[in-house]
Amino acid sequence: MTMGVSKTEEELEREAAAWFTRLHSGDVDASVRADFEAWLHHDRAHKAAYREFEQVYRDLDLVAPEAGVDLDSLLGRRRFRGSALTRFIQRPAGAIAGAGIAMALTVALLFAPSMLESGQGPSGQALAAKSSSLIATSRGEIREVRLEDGSVVTLGAKSRIETEFTPSTRKIDLLDGEVFLEVAKDADRPFFVTSQDTLVRVTGTKFDVKRSADIVHVSVLEGVVEVMKPADIPAAIEQQDVEDIEKQVLTKGERVSAARRVALPEVKQIEQVEPGAWREGRLAYEDASLAEIIADLNRYSDRQIEIASSDVGDMRSTVAFRVDNMDQVFDVLEAIHPLTVSRPAAGPIVISRKR
Known about the structure:
Elements lengths: L8 H15 L6 H13 L1 H17 L3 H4 L3 H5 L8 H6 L10 H19 L12 E6 L6 E4 L5 E4 L4 E6 L4 E13 L8 E5 L2 E5 L3 E7 L2 E8 L2 E4 L4 H7 L7 E4 L3 E6 L8 E2 L12 E8 H11 L4 E3 L2 H4 L2 E7 L3 H11 L2 E4 L6 E5 L2
Parallel strand pairs: 5-6, 15-18
Antiparallel strand pairs: 1-4, 2-3, 3-5, 4-5, 5-8, 6-7, 7-10, 8-9, 9-12, 10-11, 12-13, 14-16, 17-18
Helix pairs in contact: 1-3, 1-7, 2-3, 3-7
């Protein structure tokens, strides 16, 4: 596992296979992990070679039975079938105990060069290269999830995302609600977030994305975020060519609110609570419509909150409060607007214009 300056494709494949075998041998200490990280980050070609071998290994599920891990379920993949090799590997663990893992790793090493070159498994079937999953939260629930690339996503109440990972890209589609992302740095594999007609691209940063009616709000806590509206979002992600697309570049403490089917507005400075504060139960708004504020509250409240008329929903506020004290929220709204909040013992809470 030398770190030479120039290596052939075959040498890189052999080093990647050797590292993968060692990391899955069950005898890995801090020193081995440090050596592996040094090798991995020494050159982009090392990362590419390791990813390719790892994908082959995952698609063949060579140690899943012996390790007792259902990788297909965890990664959201369909199981690779039809191969005599795979049928052997899928036998009960007792039938291949002892030498099972060693044999599987040996077979992987033997197959790796030819499969990496052709992009196919032993049966001639193209190897799967994509994993995806749907993650959702219920009313009042805040959930933190670690993704397969090491990134961490926190979903707000009543939020829903779909994740998709390939060897070249990472993507989240925000279908409902709000998420805060701590994206693991990977210059070779950008991270995309899509919602409505808005596309966000980063390589490693901390930022918040909220989908509210026909507006997508993006706020940055750390790093750099690109926000754009390409005509063809799937093509932009697949080609990873967004240089010629008009965009807004956000840095720490900045936000943009992208309305659907409208050009991107100017970037604004964040003056209230920092992005992601809702993870601690604090909501903050700057010149937001009452309709947007109440829609957020309905994701946390056990009781439905209704707005009596559209003109009430159009009223705008700059407020901050905790979601665990709804009465305080309503007191504030009544104080700053000509509003009446009806709070019966049962049934929905109704906000209407003061008569």
